[in-house]
Structure to design on (552 residues):
């Protein structure tokens, strides 16, 4: 059984069929890309996987568990974390607190202990703090630790969101256009970070418009158009696929 | 006006201001996690006062107040659990109107459980005629209790929201609920918690002010309006702002008595509320974006 299985997923908004009969598998420890023109249903698809949206029908199976109808917080607890195309940080909280929120899923203190501030929740608070500082160090954000998240420059905010997703110790990391708004150097840096994350055993699902980045790092590519999967394969196969060339470069016959 | 008289007005202003501040903070806690203005907030104060008066017949005062806080907190939790959580239409305006309905319901329930008589809790220390002389002004020891409890509530809440995982989660929900859910936070439980917490704080406030202001089934409404004015003045969602706003409105009210007839006391705070809404809707300390972002 595959690590993450998407089976016959459907989702529509009013009359618009945003995701139509999409199925594919993701192997553990690989980088998988979803590409397609604007409005192809890429973001809808990962919203369905991360639980932000519920499918009309179809299945999402992660580690042998059906997750398609679980609420987002419980999917997060199962080890799936994600970033957003338009960054969603806790803007009025500090950089450090943002990371600490990411650690939240990995702490045991529940509702009541947290509320009553029992001794073991203080201990856990200390370890959360320590671990969060380590993550900041790792992503070179330490100097910003006590600044409000929305005071960071855009590029740093993307890195912070990435760091927050990583602080959850995910098994599957979903990245929604992580290179959007980054310059060439930052994008190269990002490619290295993503590859390192994969090498540490984390599976990655990425949406991206930067084709150079996608072709460089991914092992498998799924191509969507108008909500349907039109192709799937290795970067080489996708580059040669006539359907994919058609939607990206236009139909030769149509131009005539 | 003599110096002693002025001081007397100032102390009475600070007392009322502290009461308004605690009510305003109650509004803020729920507003921060949900975006709802809970118009049943005043009823939490009323319930806290009423239940502690009833319990005080059977238990010593501290236990009676503690029980009242617990009972009211449970009522707060139930309001979310039974009503807010189950609304089909989760629109903010819709939920606000529901809280107005709940406030009427709670008042009527209180009228049936107790009656329309005015009651009050015994003074925490001393009685109605004992007073302390501070710089020439005479104040009731209960006033010190009110100010003390208000300060403790603000201090504990500040620590709670800043240094505990649960407090941070509540702030995270208010900042970005989608991201909070994806960080593994059950946002619905955070809403229940915010209702529970505000009800508990309201009940504590209701009990501590009962000896001074007295408690009746419908005393919540006027307190809620003052608390709302204070929360708006301080900037919705900002608890330190609510304290500042509370003191400002409390002082203006009590000083107005020296120039205007007593009957105009309530008009002062309502005028300030209207003025703020016209001139600076984000309040004294609120951020512009916050007032612009919320959807009503």
């Amino acid at each position: 059984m595959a690590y993450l299985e998407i089976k016959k997923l459907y989702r529509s908004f009013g009359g618009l069929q945003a995701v139509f009969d999409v199925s594919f598998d993701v192997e553990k420890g690989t980088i998988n890309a979803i590409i397609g023109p604007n409005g192809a249903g890429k973001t809808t698809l990962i919203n369905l996987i991360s639980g932000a949206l519920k499918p009309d029908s179809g299945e999402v199976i992660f580690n042998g568990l059906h997750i398609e109808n679980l609420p987002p917080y419980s999917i997060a607890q199962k080890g799936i974390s994600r970033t957003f195309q338009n960054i969603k940080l806790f803007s009025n909280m500090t950089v450090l607190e943002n990371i600490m929120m990411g650690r939240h899923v990995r702490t045991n203190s529940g509702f009541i202990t947290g509320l009553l501030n029992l001794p073991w929740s203080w201990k856990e608070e200390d370890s959360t703090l320590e671990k969060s500082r380590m993550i900041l160090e790792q992503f070179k954000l330490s100097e910003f630790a006590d600044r409000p998240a929305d005071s960071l420059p855009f590029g740093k905010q993307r890195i912070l969101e990435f760091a927050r997703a990583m602080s959850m110790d995910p098994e599957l990391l979903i990245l929604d256009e992580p290179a959007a708004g980054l310059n060439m150097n930052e994008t190269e840096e990002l490619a290295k970070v993503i590859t390192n994350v994969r090498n540490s055993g984390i599976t990655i699902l990425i949406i991206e418009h930067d084709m150079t980045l996608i072709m460089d790092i991914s092992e498998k590519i799924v191509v969507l158009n108008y909500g349907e999967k039109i192709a799937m394969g290795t970067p080489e196969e996708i580059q040669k696929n006539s359907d994919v060339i058609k939607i990206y470069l236009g139909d030769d016959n149509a131009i005539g | 006006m003599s110096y002693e008289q002025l001081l007397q007005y100032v102390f009475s202003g600070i007392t009322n201001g502290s009461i308004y501040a605690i009510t305003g903070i109650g509004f803020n806690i729920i507003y921060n996690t949900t975006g709802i203005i809970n118009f049943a907030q005043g009823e939490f104060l009323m319930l806290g006062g009423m239940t502690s008066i009833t319990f005080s017949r059977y238990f010593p005062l501290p236990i009676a107040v503690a029980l009242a806080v617990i009972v009211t907190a449970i009522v707060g939790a139930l309001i979310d659990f039974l009503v807010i959580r189950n609304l089909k239409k989760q629109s903010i305006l819709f939920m606000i109107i529901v809280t107005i309905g709940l406030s009427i319901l709670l008042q009527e329930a209180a009228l049936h459980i107790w009656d329309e008589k005015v009651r009050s809790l015994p003074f925490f220390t001393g009685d109605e005629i004992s007073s302390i002389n501070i710089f020439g002004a005479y104040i009731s020891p209960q006033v010190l209790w009110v100010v003390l409890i208000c300060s403790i509530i603000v201090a504990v809440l500040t620590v709670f929201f800043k240094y505990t995982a649960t407090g941070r989660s509540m702030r995270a929900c208010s900042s970005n609920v989608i991201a909070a859910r994806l960080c593994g936070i059950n946002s619905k439980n955070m809403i229940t918690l915010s209702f529970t917490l505000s009800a508990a704080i309201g009940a504590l406030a209701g009990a501590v002010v009962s000896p001074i202001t007295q408690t009746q089934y419908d005393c919540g409404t006027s307190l809620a309006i003052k608390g709302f004015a204070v929360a708006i003045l301080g900037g919705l969602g900002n608890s330190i702002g609510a304290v500042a706003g509370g003191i400002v409105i409390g002082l203006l009210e009590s000083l107005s008595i020296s120039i205007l007839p007593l009957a105009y006391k309530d008009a002062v705070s309502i005028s300030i509320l209207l003025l703020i809404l016209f001139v600076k809707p984000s309040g004294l300390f609120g951020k512009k974006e916050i007032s612009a972002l919320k959807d009503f």
Observations:
- Residues 1-79+170-256 of chain A form a domain with the Rossmann fold fold (CATH 3.40.50.300).
- Residues 119-138 of chain A form the longest helix (20 residues).
- Residues 90 and 98 of chain A are 6 Å apart (CA to CA).
- Chain A touches chain B at residues 50-52, 71-74, 76-77, 81-82, 84, 88-93, 97, 100-102, 104-105, 107, 109, 111, 114-115, 117, 121, 124-125, 128, 164, 168 (CB under 8 Å).
